[in-house]
Design goal:
With 475 residues, this protein is of the alpha+beta class. It has 3 domains: 268 residues, LigB-like (Protocatechuate 4,5-dioxygenase, Chain B, 3-Layer(aba) Sandwich); 104 residues, Glycoprotein, Type 4 Pilin; 74 residues, 2-Layer Sandwich (Dna Ligase, domain 1). It is built from 16 helices and 19 strands. Strands 2, 3, 4, 7, 8, 9, 10 and 11 form an 8-stranded mixed sheet that branches. The chain has a 4-stranded antiparallel sheet with strand order 13-12-14-19, covered by helices on one side. β16 and β17 form a beta hairpin. α4 packs across α8, α10 runs antiparallel to α11 and α12 crosses α14.
Length: 475
């Protein structure tokens, strides 16, 4: 009996020692970087938010914020500009991405369970979302990364005051290597769509330079952020240039949102404006990444469709007859718009070739030229079109809308949507008209897209990614 009791006690101690770091993280900043007294802290944040100069709120849904992480007497007013823009919104979770100041490591550490405690209470971890991000990125929990790090905790009281209903997912980024940054950004893009989530990139700007030098450097960095110059920012961070201590978190956030957002600068200041010396200042930035909203629907006139069909025909003729690429550039701005497109060739009502490009990497007219030639000569399912066949070809063009990732297959409308099923390096695409021509149900459409990708027919039910798109189809 005594051995059994000792075993139970040992198990409890072992369990506690293993799980405590993933439990409630106690505040290390209260009484130093911000007020220890709950009422005083609440009043301070209220005052900072009230001091935000009135301005029109950012237009559109805010996907992410950039906010500073110094003590509240230094950067609190700048942070208030960021948090004022989201106050009272219905976010369910806030992901806080911060750099590691105290502990050197590679990759990221994701806090998976428990909560962060401040004088205002406990901000609970969104354990389900944290686990999703961990699985998608491969990043785990590293206790030492969170133990003494201030850059996450300093954000939490502002979140508790402005978004009291929201849970949090703290992420500490180690060495800001390109591979780490892009892995985290890819995980965010994979997991966050269709979720009510706000991302916070925690960073201060340049450190301990003269006011003049700091303001000049920060101005250039802010321009790079506004223009989504992520490649340049990555190089600067890898070279350890004095531009941002949270460069990795900022770049990962930009990469996550860059295809759907624009950056709005809310406020910039440096420590000299809050009582620090001008000889050695730290820069602070508040910015919002705002969803640009629904893109204006792309349409083609009858004449534009005819021009693209003539272009596809001419490109096929010239390449097959003379092995030359058709040289042509239209003046019409619609045909200069970057769009994905497929060209389908039929002969006697039967498929003779179909190739295209999903991503809008080239102007539409160039996409059509290349797709037409590839459909005629490089579709591996058929021998190349011969010169005597050209007159018998019927050309159909499908101009694609951007892909939209979905989690609920019931959103798919047969006849309206095309499908892309993807898993790892396997990807299968079916155009909207394929399901109609074959009289497929939604489930058959999904199964056939899986088979097209070289996946099991039911992969769509488990861990394959599902994307939908629409198409302007004409012939």
């Amino acid at each position: 009996m005594r051995k059994k009791i000792l075993l139970i006690v040992f198990s409890v101690i072992l369990f506690t020692s293993l799980t405590w770091p993933q439990g409630i993280r106690k505040s290390i900043l209260a009484g130093q970087w911000y007020d220890k007294n709950p009422e005083a802290l609440s009043h301070r944040i209220d005052s900072l938010l009230k001091n935000v100069k009135k301005s029109p709120p950012p237009h559109g849904k805010i996907l992410a914020l950039i906010a500073p992480h110094a003590g509240y007497i230094w950067s609190g007013q700048v942070a208030a500009y960021a948090y004022k823009s989201v106050q009272g919104k219905d976010y369910e979770t806030v992901i806080i991405i911060a750099p590691s100041h105290k502990f050197g490591f590679d990759g990221c550490s994701i806090y998976l369970r428990g909560g962060y405690e401040t004088p205002l209470g406990i901000a609970k971890i969104d354990e389900h979302l944290a686990l999703e991000l961990s699985k998608a990125s491969g990043f785990k929990y590293i206790p030492k990364a969170h133990k003494m790090e201030h850059a996450v905790e300093i954000q939490v009281p502002f979140i508790q005051k402005t978004l009291p209903q929201a849970k949090i997912v703290p992420i500490i980024m180690g060495n800001p290597a390109k591979e780490t940054i892009t892995r985290l950004a890819s995980a965010l893009k994979k997991v966050l769509p269709e979720k009510k989530v706000l991302v916070i990139a925690s960073t201060d700007m340049s450190h301990l330079l003269s006011k003049k030098n700091a303001n000049e450097i920060d101005s250039k960095t802010i321009s790079l952020i506004k223009d989504f110059k992520t490649s340049i920012l990555i190089k600067k961070c890898e070279r350890r240039e004095n531009i941002m201590c949270g460069g990795g978190p900022v770049i990962a956030t930009l990469l996550y949102a860059q295809k759907q957002a624009e950056v709005e600068i809310l406020y910039y200041a440096d420590s000299s404006q809050f009582g620090g010396p001008e000889s050695e200042v730290v820069g602070y930035l508040a910015a919002a990444l705002i969803d640009k909203g629904p893109i204006t629907e792309f349409n083609l006139s009858l004449e534009e469709k005819k021009e693209l069909l003539r272009l596809a025909q001419a490109a096929i003729n010239l390449f097959i007859q003379e092995n030359k690429i058709f040289n042509y550039k239209p003046q019409n701005p619609n045909l200069l718009t970057e769009k994905g497109a497929f060209v389908t060739l039929k002969k006697g009502g039967r498929l003779r070739g179909c190739i295209g490009f999903i991503e809008p990497a080239l102007p539409l007219y160039q996409t059509v030229i290349q797709a037409a030639i590839y459909a005629a000569c490089r579709d591996a399912r058929f021998i190349p079109v011969s010169p005597h066949e050209i007159k018998d070809l019927k050309i159909e063009i499908s101009v694609l809308s951007p892909l939209k990732k979905i989690k609920n297959p019931r959103l798919i409308e047969v006849g309206r949507h095309g499908l892309v099923i993807a898993k790892t390096d396997k990807k299968g695409l079916l155009l909207p008209q394929v399901a109609v021509e074959n009289h497929w149900s939604r489930e058959t459409f999904l199964q056939q897209a899986c088979l097209k990708a070289g996946l099991p027919h039911d992969a769509w039910k488990s861990d394959a990614d599902i994307f939908i798109f629409e198409a302007i189809v004409f012939h």
